[in-house]
């Protein structure tokens, strides 16, 4: 099984590389974060925690890391479903299947640690502050990494346990969940109006009450509920109508359908990504008068944003696996390679463009209101916006490259 | 203009050419189809049925020999011309339906029309009319994974027929259907063939399903081994002949 695991990593090098990269990034992030958090100037301790912002931030950071590992694991394992099905058919037991999956994770994890530590030291030395090495920071990082391995074990055990041969071969089917029915009924227009108020309203309030930094977080979180509803209740139904309007455009008909599916499939990720960024900006403003806090929160913002962008990349890549067959069908109907290339490009541009626009709509307004209230200078505003845009744009480019390669239409 | 809607001459398909794994799947097959025929292609597993159907329908290209549809050699077509040719002349029905799970049944059926640059109002009218004919008009806003196998196959047929193609290529179209839905599908194909002179080329393993055709082509080891025409035979007599051919082939293994 362990030999098979090595072979499997070799055979599926590109995916293994992405999984490995997730481990490298999460380890760097945790190491840098806890070195700064446990440095004497911040003084965070896990035994007697007294620093509320940093404690909240730590919990959030750990959560994001685990979430990122979860999606990386899901993305990595799903592609191996046929391989697992063959092993089950050949009589592999639950324990053997777990060892097979877990050995791959552990091998990649062990390969990631030395590189991650090296890069973390480099990163810490590049920061404009002297951070003395903290043993507690190191201990916490190691504990968290051990927890990460434990988490992967749980994930892989769960995957091996619930895997049946039929399910592995057929794959998961997407399903549309019925929304909860409420005891009262709004007309469609009224519902849309209310959702728009919930989505846009908090931004207006930010400009009025944005001087209170805690209100930034509160209003933004209300806005995120509005965003979630906006995606599900406004964008998706509007897309159905949009597709009906574009029936005579053979490219739009396909890429809008693909995009609709992406939004249904990734709605939670998109909202979570934007909500996490908004929360980080709220925390960033709370610690703006202390440079070390600011660096700590900025590093957290950058890292959580990168990791969450990666989860979007992984989620899209998982969906991409199902698309291979659809592209073959489109070719049989009469779609040429050039048309298919355009479809895939437009889908990626629209998906990532939508995430960027929705995110920027909130982030820009929050940052601008903070700037207008004198809580942030213009350079930080620009840096934060670039930090938001660049990782997502890189993920879009990687996804586009992967998509074309996977669909074999180069 | 030739009397044949489709002609194949010396059709040869070699996989892995000039490699260690070189394998000749079809050996110089000659084959003609006249307009309005209902042909069933039968043969044991691995005999080259699917390779044959793929090569005569532009899905794959022969290694040597030629295939002409409406007197046009498909090997001389550019990828753009092949795409156009497919949505204008051919309709495909497959065993696993090949519908796009990302799109509703309506959108799936509309795709060939959209490719043919038909205007929106016409698309809506034609999709609705076709759906009504196939009794799936209530399901148009559903996604394929929300429908049963029979409903999905009817939607796949609606998509194959929406452009009124002259040739329908069906690769084991009843493979995933129960007997009732299989019979319904075959009756539909037969009706299309009789009422609209649509040429149908279908692959099947099942002698009963093959008995709906007007000509049976039996392929074995990459060659056309036999052909049976139904002509004036009743369906039952034709079925008996197909069964005899099949069992004779099976009996050869005992000798």
From TrEMBL, chain A:
Signal peptide: none annotated. The chain crosses the membrane at residues 17-37, 57-76, 97-122, 142-161, 193-210, 216-236, 270-288, 294-316, 349-372, 378-398. It is a multi-pass membrane protein. Keywords: Cell membrane, Membrane, Transmembrane, Transmembrane helix. It holds the Pfam family FtsX. InterPro entries: ABC3_permease_C (IPR003838). It is found in: Cell membrane. The keyword Membrane applies. It comes from the Bacteria. Residues 57-154 form the ABC3 transporter permease C-terminal domain. Its main location: membrane. This is FtsX-like permease family protein. The lineage of its organism: Bacteria, Bacillati, Bacillota, Erysipelotrichia, Erysipelotrichales.
Automatic annotation (TrEMBL), chain B:
PROSITE patterns: ABC_TRANSPORTER_1 (PS00211), ABC_TRANSPORTER_2 (PS50893). The keyword Transmembrane helix does not apply. Pfam families: ABC_tran. Keywords: ATP-binding, Nucleotide-binding, Transport. One of its GO terms (molecular function) is ATP binding. Signal peptide: none annotated. Residues 6-246 form the ABC transporter domain. GO terms for cellular component: membrane protein complex. The keyword NAD does not apply. Gene3D superfamilies: P-loop containing nucleotide triphosphate hydrolases. CDD domains: ABC_MJ0796_LolCDE_FtsE (cd03255). Belongs to the ABC transporter superfamily. This is Putative ABC transport system ATP-binding protein. It comes from Longibaculum muris. The lineage of its organism: Bacteria, Bacillati, Bacillota, Erysipelotrichia, Erysipelotrichales.
């Amino acid at each position: 099984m362990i030999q098979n695991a090595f072979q499997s990593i070799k055979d599926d090098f590109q995916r293994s590389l992405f999984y490995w990269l997730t481990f490298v990034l999460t380890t760097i992030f945790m190491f840098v974060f806890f070195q700064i958090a446990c440095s004497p100037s911040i003084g965070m301790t896990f035994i007697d925690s007294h620093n509320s912002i940093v404690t909240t931030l730590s919990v959030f950071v750990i959560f994001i890391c685990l979430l990122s590992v979860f999606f990386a694991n899901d993305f990595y394992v799903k592609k191996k479903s046929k391989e697992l099905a063959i092993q089950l058919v050949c009589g592999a037991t639950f324990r053997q299947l777990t060892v097979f999956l877990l050995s791959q994770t552990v091998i990649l994890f062990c390969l990631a640690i030395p590189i991650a530590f090296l890069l973390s030291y480099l990163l810490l030395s590049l920061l404009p502050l002297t951070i003395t090495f903290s043993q507690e920071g190191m201990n916490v990082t190691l504990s968290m990494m051990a927890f990460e391995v434990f988490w992967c074990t749980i994930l892989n055990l769960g995957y091996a346990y619930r895997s049946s041969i039929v399910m592995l071969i057929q794959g998961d089917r997407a399903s549309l969940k019925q929304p909860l029915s409420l005891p009262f009924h709004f007309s469609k227009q009224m519902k849309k109006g209310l959702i728009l108020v919930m989505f846009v309203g908090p931004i207006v309030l930010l400009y009025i009450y944005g001087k209170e930094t805690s209100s930034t977080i509160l209003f933004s979180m209300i806005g995120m509920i509005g965003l979630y509803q906006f995606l599900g209740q406004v964008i998706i139904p509007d897309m159905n109508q949009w597709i009906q309007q574009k029936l005579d455009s053979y490219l739009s008909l396909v890429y809008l359908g693909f995009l609709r599916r992406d939004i249904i499939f990734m709605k939670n990720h998109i909202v979570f990504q934007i909500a996490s960024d908004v929360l980080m900006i709220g925390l960033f403003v709370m610690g703006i008068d202390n440079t070390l806090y600011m660096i700590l929160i900025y590093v957290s913002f950058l890292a959580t944003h990168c990791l969450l962008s990666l989860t979007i990349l992984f989620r899209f890549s998982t969906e991409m696996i199902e698309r291979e067959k659809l592209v073959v069908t489109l070719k049989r109907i009469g779609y040429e390679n050039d048309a298919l290339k355009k479809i895939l490009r437009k889908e990626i541009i629209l998906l990532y463009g939508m995430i960027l626009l929705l995110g920027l709509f909130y982030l820009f307004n929050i940052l601008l209101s903070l700037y207008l209230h004198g809580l942030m200078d213009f350079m930080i505003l620009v840096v934060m916006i670039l930090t938001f845009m660049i990782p997502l744009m890189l993920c879009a480019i990687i996804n586009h490259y992967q998509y074309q390669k996977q669909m074999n239409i180069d | 203009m030739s009397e044949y809607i489709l002609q194949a001459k010396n059709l040869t398909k070699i996989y892995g050419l000039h490699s260690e794994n070189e394998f000749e799947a079809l050996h110089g097959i000659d084959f003609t189809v006249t307009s309005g025929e209902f042909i069933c292609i039968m043969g044991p597993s691995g005999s080259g049925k699917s390779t044959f159907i793929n090569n005569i329908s532009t899905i794959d290209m022969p290694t040597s020999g030629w295939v002409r549809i409406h007197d046009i050699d498909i090997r001389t077509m550019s990828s753009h011309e092949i795409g156009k040719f497919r949505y204008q002349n051919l309709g495909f029905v497959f065993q696993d339906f090949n519908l796009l799970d990302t799109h509703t049944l309506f959108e799936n059926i509309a795709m060939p029309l959209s490719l043919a640059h038909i205007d929106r109002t016409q698309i809506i009218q034609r999709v609705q009319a076709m759906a009504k004919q196939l009794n799936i008009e209530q399901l148009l806003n559903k996604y394929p994974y929300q429908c049963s196998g029979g409903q999905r196959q009817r939607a796949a047929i609606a998509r194959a027929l929406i452009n009124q193609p002259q040739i329908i290529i069906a690769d084991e179209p009843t493979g995933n259907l129960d007997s009732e839905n299989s019979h319904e599908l075959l009756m539909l194909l037969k009706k299309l063939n009789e009422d609209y002179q649509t040429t149908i080329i279908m692959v099947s393993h099942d002698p009963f399903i093959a008995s709906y055709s007007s000509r049976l082509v039996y392929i074995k080891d990459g060659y056309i081994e036999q052909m049976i025409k139904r002509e004036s035979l009743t369906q039952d007599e034709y079925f008996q002949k197909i069964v005899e051919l099949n069992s004779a082939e099976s009996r050869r293994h005992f000798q």
